[in-house]
Q: What sequence folds into this?
């Protein structure tokens, strides 16, 4: 048996050395090149009409809530950090002439997250005010408040 054990050990060692020789015989290759990706282009944030959800809260001397539905058409989430009035406030549907609305908007700062390709409804408590200068025909009117949205991508 000793002879067969020696033969087995020699055979195993020979096979192991042959395998090692094959591994060392393989060529190693490296190289360089370029990979590519491209950034998307940001699309403008906007609002969605939610006028049907507005509650009648304003009257001369009072403040009321403002409802805005934020829309993000981008492929990534955004956080809106400010909502600012950006133009004249108009009225429609009052009981008469409402050329002097007396309505003002208080700019808002905060943090409103909007999902990629999504909408988020926000109620801005007490953001609108109606002065005593409002026309009597403004009763029952719906006020449209142009706003500017400022935000950025919500990098995680």
A:
């Amino acid at each position: 048996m000793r002879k067969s054990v020696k033969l087995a050990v020699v055979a195993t060692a020979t096979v192991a050395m042959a395998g090692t020789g094959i591994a060392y015989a393989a060529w190693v290759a490296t190289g360089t090149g370029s990979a590519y990706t491209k950034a998307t282009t940001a699309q403008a944030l906007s609002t969605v009409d939610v006028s049907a959800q507005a509650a009648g809260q304003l009257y001369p001397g009072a403040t009321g809530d403002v409802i805005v539905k934020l829309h993000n058409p981008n492929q990534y989430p955004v956080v809106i950090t400010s909502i600012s009035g950006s133009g004249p406030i108009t009225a429609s549907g009052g009981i008469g002439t409402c050329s002097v609305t007396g309505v003002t908007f208080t700019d808002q700062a905060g943090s409103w997250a909007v999902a990629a390709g999504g909408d988020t409804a926000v109620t801005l408590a007490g953001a609108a005010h109606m002065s005593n200068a409002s026309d009597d025909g403004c009763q029952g009117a719906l006020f449209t408040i142009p706003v500017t949205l400022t935000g950025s991508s919500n990098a995680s």
